[in-house]
Amino acid sequence: MSISSASLPDLLTYDDAESLVGPSSIDLPRAQAAIAEFLRALGRDETDPHLLDTPRRVAAAYAEMLTPRETTWTTFPNDDGYQGLVLVKDIPFHSLCQHHLLPFRGVAHVGYLPGDRLFGLSKMARGVELFSRDLQVQERLTQQVADWLEDTLAPRGVGVVMEAEHMCMSLRGVQTSGTTTRTSVFTGLLSQGGPLRGQFPQ
Questions:
Q1: Alpha-carbon span 145 to 59, nearest angstrom
Q2: Alpha helices in the chain (DSSP H)
């Protein structure tokens, strides 16, 4: 899901290319050649001056969208015994529909009831990004974020709500622009409803 740094100078010229790190699994030259062939299959002349650099740009764009930034999942002891809800709302995210390779984007609301460990707040946004930068369906994405919190923190409960607009619905098919899909996962004490769960979007 990442790009080797050796491939970046020739094919990826975005300012934040340095943030795309990790073991290589994206073959940029092969992706670029495939996009050139795709343009030909669509009846377009890839030698048109306006399309000459399109294969490189598209390959680089998809590589960026499919590569999360490297991070570490540092946790902290809950020394003060905090028992309340930790909730980060309106985390923006974008992903790619695995059925149409079109974007879906929206916001995530991620929270947990601490046990013995706490997260730095920024890590919750980074966790959403980690699983979003893949070929996805929203249902699986929501479950993956919840499972990651469970596995990393062993909290007393987890809540993840994701709301997104899908371009595969807005631009094609039924063409219902502006519709929002909401998915949610609640575990542990948050699966039981009540005032804490009520702090999540309903």
A1: 27
A2: 8-11, 28-41, 54-65, 121-132, 138-153, 167-170
Dihedral of alpha carbons 19, 21, 24, 25, sign:
negative
Q: Is residue 60 pLDDT above 60, yes or no? A: yes
Crossing angle (nearest 10°) for helices 121-132 and 138-153: 140
Q: Look at residues 85, 63, 73, 72 and name the one whose alpha carbon lies nearest to residue 5.
A: 63
Task: Report pLDDT digits (tens) over 113-158.
Answer: 999 999 999 999 999 999 999 999 999 999 999 999 999 999 999 9
110 CB contacts (<8 Å, ≥6 apart)?
87, 88, 91, 124, 127, 128, 145, 149, 159, 160
